[in-house]
Amino acid sequence: MSGNADGGGEVARTHGRHEFATVSSTDVHVGRIFAVRADEVRMPGDTTSRREVVEHPGAVAVVAIDDAGRVVLVHQYRYPLGRRLWELPAGLLDVAGEDPLSTAQRELAEEAGIAAEQWSVLVDVASSPGFTDESVRVFLARGLFDAERPCAGANEEADLVLDRTPLSEAVNMVFSGEIVNAPAVSGLLAAQSVSGGFAQPRAPQAPWRDRPRRFSARFGDRAGGEPAG
């Protein structure tokens, strides 16, 4: 980002002014957990260019830290990468009418059998804004206690392994390349900053500017299944 510093130490940032208007839009694929559309977008110089966009329902993840300073991690198989990853408890915003905090609380219980007394927002992560509107809100949970964990069923979560790792060790796993999941990387580094007194988390219902809406709007009041209409 370019800018010029003034005498007061602030950075004067310049911003582009072109409006990237959508000229036309065509659905390429509409599935249960994402959709792909192809848009023709107005570019500077009065030209258009094709942009393929993956629509996503959005997701949440949870940095759950116990009284001993240990963070809850899950080891889960991820088919696209062909291996198991160390991650945070997380899940899609795929339940109609459920707010992100409630989703985070439900996922923490379902994946880890844990509930928490204190909740706040650490970071919002635009996973890959060059081609998808996916955004993940990462929560901080403290004051942990046991909660009922539902049956995992027969999917990847049936093979999920739980661990509690000191936060400092989990951060070292980020820098060693052992933790690569984007919400986990950003969430753990943010939690380290908060724990060290270098940053303050936001309220659990803080505004989420980039929360995805378009994919869910395809389904109306329904969650999952085929799009309405």
Top keywords for this entry?
single chain; 229 residues; alpha+beta; Nucleoside Triphosphate Pyrophosphohydrolase; 2 domains; four-stranded mixed beta sheet; three-stranded antiparallel beta sheet; 12 strands; 38% strand; hydrolase activity; NUDIX_hydrolase_dom; hydrolase; NUDIX_hydrolase-like_dom_sf; ADP-ribose pyrophosphatase
Please characterize this protein's 3D structure.
The protein contains 4 helices and 12 strands. Helices cover 17% and strands 38% of the residues. With 229 residues, it is of the alpha+beta class. The protein has 2 domains: 15-55, no CATH class; 59-195, Alpha-Beta Complex (Nucleoside Triphosphate Pyrophosphohydrolase). β3 (22-30) and β4 (35-43) form a beta hairpin. Strands 9-6-11-10 form a 4-stranded mixed sheet. Strands 3-4-5 form a 3-stranded antiparallel sheet, with no helix packed on it. Residues 224-229 have low confidence and may be disordered.
